[in-house]
Design brief:
12 helices, single chain, mainly alpha, MetI-like fold
């Protein structure tokens, strides 16, 4: 309850939560608010926004409703952002926990493996992975997860290296608890705070990465997404600015809201910030 009050005092975080709640609601209610297939041509091509009430954000060069595309695309962007982050966190926590707890050769081996993924530019690797396995919702999600987990692994390793020297961990070792139990019940709960903060910010990065992949034509051709809408409109910037403007605003608001929430969570869970402010 105290954490909720602290979060509510961060007006930026509250604003971000409200914006994200609206985007989530739009994604859930898209079939109700905008029934029909977002790929269908439903009006005159390249209709400017606010000229007809049926198409408040206008239409694209094929007569597809921009508002419908944005509403249905929200589900794809949020789904990929959340699932890819969960997969990346699971991989990163597993590798970082084992490396940080055991140390020695195991730590060296796992960190060299982690560094292999870090020396290659993340977006370039994501492009290659999606291209190899053909663009689909699954391949995009896994590709983003594959380039996102190293930062989590290094963070968790650092936390475990610090926490394994604490008295409660040494006491657990003395009474004969298994390493797996010590990791899951003693150390990991105390390392959750920075993991949650990092994960919240990774969702925003994943949404941007998915949008960039779709912009390059590496999105799922069966799913409407914000990045695809911008990519399809890149040759029409002068003739129909609204085709890329409104999907771009949607990406901006989603990423901004998640970053604001991440800062709010960091304010709540970071004891160093708490100490400086009080």
């Amino acid at each position: 309850m105290q954490n909720l009050k602290r979060f509510s005092r961060n007006y930026g975080a509250v604003l971000g939560a409200l914006i994200l709640a609206l985007i989530v609601a739009m994604a859930i209610l898209a079939p109700v608010l905008f029934p029909g297939n977002p790929w269908n041509s439903v009006g005159p091509p390249m209709l400017p926004p606010f000229e007809e009430s049926a198409f408040p954000l206008g239409t694209d060069m094929l007569g597809r409703d921009i508002a419908t595309g944005i509403a249905h695309g929200a589900k794809v962007s949020l789904l990929i952002g959340v699932i890819s982050t969960l997969v990346a966190v699971l991989i990163g926590v597993g590798i970082g926990a084992v490396a940080g707890f055991h140390g020695g050769r195991i730590d060296d081996l796992l960190m060299r493996f982690t560094e292999f993924f870090q020396i290659i530019p993340a977006f370039a690797m994501a492009v290659v992975l999606v291209a190899i396995f053909s663009p689909s919702l699954v391949s995009i999600t896994l590709a983003i997860a594959a380039v996102s987990w190293p930062s989590v692994a290094r963070l968790v390793r650092a936390e475990f290296l610090s926490l394994r020297e604490r008295e409660f961990v040494k006491a657990a070792v003395v009474i004969g608890q298994k390493p797996s139990r010590i990791i899951l019940t003693q150390i990991l709960p105390n390392a959750v705070s920075p993991i949650i903060v990092t994960a919240s910010l990774m969702v925003a990065t994943a949404i941007l990465t998915e949008s960039a992949l779709s912009f390059l034509g590496l999105g799922d051709r069966n799913m409407m997404s914000w990045g695809f809408m911008i990519g399809a409109a890149r040759t029409m910037l002068r003739e129909a600015w609204w085709m890329s403007f409104f999907p771009g605003i949607a990406i901006l608001l989603a990423v901004l809201s998640i970053n604001l929430i991440g800062e709010g969570i960091n304010d709540v869970m970071n004891p160093h910030l708490r100490g400086r402010r009080h």
